[in-house]
Specification:
The protein has one domain: TIM Barrel, CATH 3.20.20.140. 26% of the residues lie in helices and 23% in strands. Strand 11, helix 7 and strand 12 form a beta-alpha-beta unit.
Length: 437
């Protein structure tokens, strides 16, 4: 009697071979399915990171990093910092060998409440600048507008600038309710500590209270500014106004301001209306170093008329170094001796601060001063704001606010800026693929 298999082969020759082939196909598919089941997760995990910055010299003051490290970025945050992260783990790799990598710079003194209102100066006027056009190319990822808006127009500033910018925009609110719109900054009746502090408590972007340009011998505007800041739990920034004879800096530092408050334009002044930190002979005034030890923050605030070598050189030679570096960038200063944040950082580097010190004074220190310790560092889990610089050696020139030249032999240049994990400035295509690949 024929078996079922023999009968089927008689009816359909080659049936047995077909069955064998079908079995082979079955086992092959099963093997492939099993392989994919276990291998796919491994293949997916092989690219854990969106961006890897590899081989750069990392300077991160908060975490005491000063050497070659790799930085991996995932979903807009710092995912890992380690000495050797495999390139196969990242979708995009930036070769930073021979370059310096730091947290994105924080410019603690800028003017960004730009607009088209005539005669409004730095408060929705023509003198302020849209931040994104002037930040990333200088390695800056955070700016602090100082005094452009007061409590009356801060909401407009937020809607028009803060919420529309890729750059992180924070602010010192002006003690004058109308903001930095020119002559009204002299209006004592518009300096309302209560409304200023209430507004500061309402908006987390407000990190301090600013007073600027007040003329006269009256200390009341400064006391009102401190009162508003005290009520809001934030620091004060003073752009010291004018008086003839000048108000004493010693009184400002020891009788008005508190530890943690900021004296901007620290190397400006002089003349009949405002004291400089050095006297007419270039000697540091009494108690200036004591004021810094007390906790008064000395800020560069370069600007178009507030950084003079005749003040800065002797002051620094006598030990009064800046705590923080900033630009006071506006339409005038960017085309004058200041230029941009990295030019100011390079200027101070050539005046004697180390590279590590100028980076700290532009990242972690200002973050501490404005009480935003989530910024200014490269800790794992922090938002991925990163700057990559080249350091050039040669013959360079740096101007002060009076147009005087001081030569230097080092200059930083921004190669790449990352904001919230996204490349926003790439000077030489470090993060770009070749066009024909």
């Amino acid at each position: 009697m024929l078996s079922r298999k023999d009968m089927l082969n008689t009816i359909h020759p080659g049936y047995s071979a077909s069955i064998q082939r079908s079995g082979l196909l079955y086992y092959s598919l099963a093997f492939l399915f099993g392989f994919l089941l276990f291998a796919l997760p491994v293949m997916v995990q092989a690219q854990n990171y969106d961006l890897l910055i590899k081989g750069g010299h990392v300077i991160d003051a908060k975490n005491d990093i000063d050497g070659q490290m790799d930085i991996a970025v995932k979903d807009g945050t710092i995912a890992r910092v380690a000495s050797n992260i495999s390139e196969t783990e990242a979708e995009r790799v930036v070769n930073a060998e021979g370059l310096y990598v730091s947290p994105g710079l924080i410019d603690i003194h800028s003017h960004n409440y730009y607009g088209t209102e005539p005669y409004r100066s730095y408060s929705n006027g023509f003198s302020a600048l849209p931040p994104d056009g002037f930040t990333f190319r200088a390695g800056v990822t955070t700016v602090v507008d100082v005094g452009g808006a007061g409590w009356k127009n801060f909401r407009h500033f937020k809607d028009q600038v803060i919420d529309r910018s890729q750059t992180r925009v924070l602010a010192f609110i002006n003690i004058v309710g109308d903001g930095m719109s020119g002559l009204p900054e002299q209006n004592l009746e518009d300096m309302d500590p209560r409304m200023t502090s209430l507004t500061a408590n309402r908006f987390p972007e407000i990190v301090g209270v600013k007073i600027a340009h007040y003329s006269g011998h009256d200390w009341e505007p400064y006391h009102r500014t401190v009162q508003a800041a005290e009520d809001a739990g934030i620091p004060v920034m003073v752009d010291f106004g004018g008086a003839n004879p000048p108000l004493p800096l010693e009184d400002l530092f020891f009788n008005v301001l508190r530890p943690g408050d900021i004296y901007t334009h620290a190397y400006g002044g002089g003349g009949a209306r405002r004291q400089a930190v050095v006297d007419e002979n270039g000697t540091l005034r009494a108690r200036m170093l004591e004021a810094q030890e007390r906790g008064i923050i000395f800020d560069i605030g370069h600007g178009g008329g507030s950084f003079f070598y005749s003040v800065a050189v002797p002051a620094m030679e006598q030990g009064l170094w800046p705590d923080v570096i900033s630009t006071d960038i506006h339409r005038g200063s960017m085309n004058d001796g200041m230029k941009d944040m990295l030019n100011v950082v390079s200027k101070i580097l050539n005046m004697g601060m180390s590279l590590q010190e100028v980076i700290e004074a532009s990242t972690w220190k200002p973050a501490q001063v404005i009480q935003r310790e989530d910024l200014g560092h490269l800790s794992e889990g922090a938002e991925a704001d990163i700057a990559i610089f080249s350091l050039h050696e040669g013959d360079f020139g740096f101007l002060d606010s009076r147009g005087y030249l001081k030569p230097g032999n080092q200059k930083l240049e921004t190669e790449l800026t990352v904001r919230r994990g996204r490349v926003v400035w790439d000077l030489n295509g470090l993060a770009a693929p070749l066009w024909n690949e």
